[in-house]
Design goal:
Keywords: Cuticle, Heme, Iron, Metal-binding, Monooxygenase, Oxidoreductase. The protein is built from 23 helices and 21 strands. It is an alpha+beta fold. The protein has a seven-stranded antiparallel β-sheet with strand order 15-16-17-18-19-20-21, with no helix packed on it. A six-stranded antiparallel β-sheet has the order 9-10-11-12-13-14, with helices on one face. The termini are far apart. Bound molecules: protoporphyrin IX containing FE (HEM).
């Protein structure tokens, strides 16, 4: 044992000596050659280097390393390979496959260098290591060839001409559907191959890919998109992705099944709603597909946990698809126009089982694809404000009137919008490449590829290579503009096989036209919406998902309406622009104050006076664009709201502008406010009314002694808005009634009741209006009642369908009215007056059918002077 060890050691020492000697020898030779080289001319050197390179190439070729050398040495003509004498398939370089486990060990998390969730990164690694054609056996005996040259991709597609292109994907889905032969005839379009695929494809594409059909749905699509844009600018959720998914589900169901899912409604956003569950089911299936397609397919023999997930998700999709198909089959009368589903049902070569399969495919392939494409497009736009500007310009040029409908003509001319989408697809295609099963032998990059081999093109990797695109990582839609006069850029020729976001040939995406049309409309509509300044998407989360054909990444996008520079600020929760935010404070001296305003719409100032009274104003701009401002006081009588305003100033208005706007507007409630009230036959002019205060400025002398009373004046403008009195007061309703349209639409109602100002037709056309007029908004845009109802000498509140107002007259009697719209649309108003001396309560009712859209108070009440008034007993007085 010992001898053996000694021998071993001796052997090792000898080897080390030899290596040392060898190294020494090489060093010496190098030194000698350096000496020799000194006098040698450059030409000699050049020839020698070329010779050495050639020799190395020959050597490496022998070892199967030709690609590696190509990458290193011939970087100019990277992939110039002679295909005259094809080399054998087995010689294609690639990761080493081990018996039984193939190359799966390379995908093991933390240990392996590849990752199933990052196919494009794997692709780039393989390209760098092995060259433009890579052979890999993830599962032993099932070679896949990754193709990195557009010229090779062209050959793959040309080889399938005249044949039915075959794809190897969605294998688990195929099994699921085959197991349920009572529901499906076949695996459906996605996984099926051969003549069965063509039977389905031929019939479905007649309907789904026909340009005329696509255009027919433009109007419906536009209506949904407009609603979506309104929701976007109103809600600004942290995560826009679910909203996008709901939008596309709505569009798909509308077009494909003529079903209005109402996916954008509040109820459907609930996680247990039909829409949310469908979206989840599609995502679960898409996420499971790749893992089930690759790797060891135990699910073929028993139900693995992942397969179970897919099965459950598919069960749900199938249930909904069945419902829709059956309903349409039974009752064709519910459709407004020919839906795709209806056209399928009329087709005699298709039976219901085929159609259910197609309905499921549509739900499966139609939601995530467009959702993520839109996310990527908005993400790139957010980072490129110059592109946004161009897009906005194009939108404004094509849609001069934002309310005008979207037409096919507009979409045709939206050249820049199309370029934005193309560029998005270049940088973030939804599919890493296109997979095919070869049906003939082909030669790719000089290698023979036999029929039956699975090849997957690597377009996503190609699209980011400098060999094929100038500035490959920049988002430059201009590269797609044909006559690029503006920038005069000399773009590289773009090989059409480099960018294939929808695949190629007869097997390409069946709904490409629909998807592109939807995305174009969304971009144009988003940018024509003048209220959204800049469209922005922030990456919140960048989760990777694992679908072979559909998704590689999950991008969670959020926060519209900021500039790109504000991304960081938004993340930190603060706008760092010093001009819009401040906080000043002094804690010295008898009077102390602080004052601050933030860029996200908050404002407060407060002053503590020498006698301990605190006065202040607080304001905030709510998400709907209403500034809510309250002047308050806290003194020996306690805390009270002096004046309160709720003024529509427009969304995202800088707080300082909003405050300036609000100054023009009289207070609506609060103990100092003298609001207008609806006409009341019991009311009479009061010459001792106080003047409403002009503002709560901490420099205002009003607050110096807190006990001062408001100054009485002789002439009272307050009553002048009533008939017979010239008005100098302005109508409040132009400020805080966002849109009269609300009253025109009886079907939809706000979720809660609304504060509403009295409307007086006599002064409805006030000349003084704020510069920010309310946009057309839906009911949901209305502010909630803010709860402040005390006024200088009474109270008032106005809700959507009811109101109550009362004021105390100088003699001590109370005059008021209350009313409501009853469920039959009858307005029921009671005018009343109390008599402090007799304790009586005079009242008169005024009931009239006015419909649901009318105000709860009567702007023109009947003349009650000649009618008999009811007198209630003092005990029943209010
Ligand atoms: C931006 C959106 C979309 C992208 C990027 C996209 C991309 C793709 C790609 C790459 C393929 C494979 C093509 C091939 O093998 O050559 C495909 C196939 C398919 N897509 Fe889309 N797609 C999108 C939207 C949609 C929508 C909205 C639907 C549903 C109505 C849909 C339904 C299908 C179907 C059924 C197939 C299989 C076609 C067949 O094998 O014959 N796709 N899509």
């Amino acid at each position: 044992m010992l001898t053996f060890q000694n021998e071993n050691i001796e052997w090792l020492v000898r080897k080390a000596e030899n290596r040392e000697n060898a190294r020494f020898k090489i060093d010496r030779e190098l030194k000698q050659s350096a000496q020799i080289l000194k006098p040698v001319s450059l030409v000699y050197l050049y020839i020698r280097i070329k010779f050495i390179m050639y020799a190395r190439m020959k050597l490496c070729e022998k070892k199967g390393m030709i690609k590696k050398l190509c990458v290193r040495v011939c970087s100019n003509n990277l992939y110039q390979i002679d295909s005259a004498k094809p080399k054998p398939f087995e010689n294609i370089p690639g990761p080493r496959s081990l018996p039984v486990i193939g190359t799966l060990y390379k995908y093991v998390p933390f240990i392996g260098e590849y990752n199933f969730t990052k196919l494009h990164t794997n692709g780039l690694l393989k390209l760098k290591r092995y060259g433009p054609l890579v052979r890999e056996e993830i599962v032993p005996g099932q070679p896949i060839v990754w193709v990195f040259r557009p010229e090779d991709i062209e050959k793959v597609f040309k080889a399938e001409s005249g044949l039915h292109p075959k794809r190897r994907s969605h294998l688990a889905l195929l099994k699921y559907r085959k197991d349920r032969s009572n529901v499906y005839n076949s695996g459906g379009l996605l996984p099926t191959n051969g003549t069965e695929w063509w039977r389905l494809r031929r019939e479905f594409q007649k309907v789904l890919s026909k340009p005329r059909n696509v255009v027919d749905y433009l109007e419906d699509t536009d209506a949904v998109v407009q609603k979506f844009v309104r929701i976007c600018s109103r809600e600004k959720p942290n995560d826009f992705l679910p909203l996008f998914s709901h939008l596309f589900l709505e569009l798909i169901c509308l077009v494909a099944f003529d079903v209005k899912m109402g996916s954008l409604s509040e109820e459907e956003k609930h996680p247990h709603s039909r829409s949310s569950r469908l979206i989840e089911a599609a995502l679960t299936t898409n996420s499971a597909i790749l893992k089930l397609d690759n790797g060891l397919m135990f699910w073929r023999f028993f139900e693995t946990p992942l397969y179970r997930k897919l099965r459950k998700a598919q069960n749900y999709m199938e249930e909904i698809a069945l419902q829709m198909v059956t309903q349409k089959n039974q009752d064709a009368s519910i459709c407004r126009k020919q839906s795709l589903l209806e056209e399928y049902l009329k087709n005699e070569t298709l039976d219901v089982k085929d159609i259910v399969g197609m309905a499921c495919d549509t739900l499966l392939a139609g939601i995530d694809t467009t959702t993520y494409s839109l996310s990527y497009a908005l993400y790139h736009l957010a980072r490129n404000t110059n592109v946004q500007e161009k897009l906005r310009l194009e939108a404004a040029t094509l849609l001069t009137d934002p309310m005008s409908p979207m037409t096919a003509e507009i979409l045709r001319n939206a050249i820049y919008t199309k370029a934005v989408l193309k560029e998005t697809f270049r940088l973030n295609p939804l599919s890493v490449g296109i997979g095919r099963i070869l049906q003939t032998d082909v030669v790719l990059s000089g290698y023979h590829i036999p029929k039956g081999t699975v090849v997957v093109t690597q377009n996503q990797v190609i699209c980011r290579l400098p060999e094929y695109f100038d500035e490959p990582n920049s988002f430059r839609p201009e590269r797609w503009l044909r006559d690029n006069d503006v920038t005069k850029l000399k773009e590289k020729f773009i090989n059409p096989y480099a960018v294939l976001p929808f695949g190629h040939g007869p097997r390409s995406c069946i709904a490409r036209r629909f998807a592109e049309q939807n995305l174009q409309i969304i971009l144009l509509r988003s940018y024509i919406d003048q209220t959204s300044k800049t469209l922005i998407i922030r990456i919140n989360e960048h989760k990777n998902h694992d679908e072979e054909k559909i998704l590689q990444k999950r991008l969670i996008a959020s926060a519209l309406c900021l500039t790109a520079d504000e991304i960081e600020a938004q993340r930190s929760g603060w706008n760092l622009n010093p001009n819009t935010q401040y906080h000043i404070q002094t804690d010295e001296g008898p009077e102390r104050f602080f004052r601050f305003q933030t860029s996200n719409g908050q404002y407060r100032k407060e002053k503590r006076l020498a006698d301990g009274t605190v006065i202040g104003t607080e304001g905030w701009l709510d998400p709907l664009g209403y500034l809510r401002l309250k002047d308050y006081i806290a003194d020996h009588e306690g805390f009270r709201i002096l004046k309160s305003k709720m003024v529509y100033v427009g969304k995202d208005r800088p707080i300082q502008d909003a405050l300036a706007e609000a100054k023009k507007i009289p207070a609506q409630t609060g103990i100092l406010a003298r609001p207008k009230r609806p006409p009341n036959p019991f009311r009479r002019p009061d010459s001792n009314a106080i003047v409403p205060l002009s503002g709560n400025d901490i420099t205002s002398s009003y607050y110096a002694p807190t006990t001062i009373r408001p100054r009485p004046i002789s002439r009272n403008n307050y009553y002048s808005n009533r008939p017979g009195y010239p008005s100098e007061l302005q109508s409040l309703d132009v400020y805080h009634r966002p849109d009269a349209m609300y009253y025109r639409e009886p079907a939809a109602r706000p979720p809660t009741q609304i504060l509403e100002a009295p409307y007086d037709p006599a002064i409805g056309s006030s000349s003084l209006k704020p510069s920010y007029q309310s946009p057309s908004v839906s009911q949901n845009d209305f502010p909630l009642y803010d709860g402040t109802h005390t006024t200088a000498n009474g109270f008032q509140y106005y809700l959507r369908r009811q109101y109550h107002e009362e004021e105390r007259e100088p003699e001590g009697n109370n005059v008021g009215s209350f009313g409501y719209i009853d469920p039959f649309g009858i307005r029921r108003v009671i005018y009343y007056k109390t008599d402090p001396f007799s304790g009586g309560f005079l009242h008169k009712k005024n009931n009239r059918y006015v419909g649901f859209n009318a105000t709860p108070y009567d702007p023109l009440p009947p003349d009650l002077s000649r009618t008999r008034l009811s007198r209630a007993l003092p005990t029943s007085a209010s």
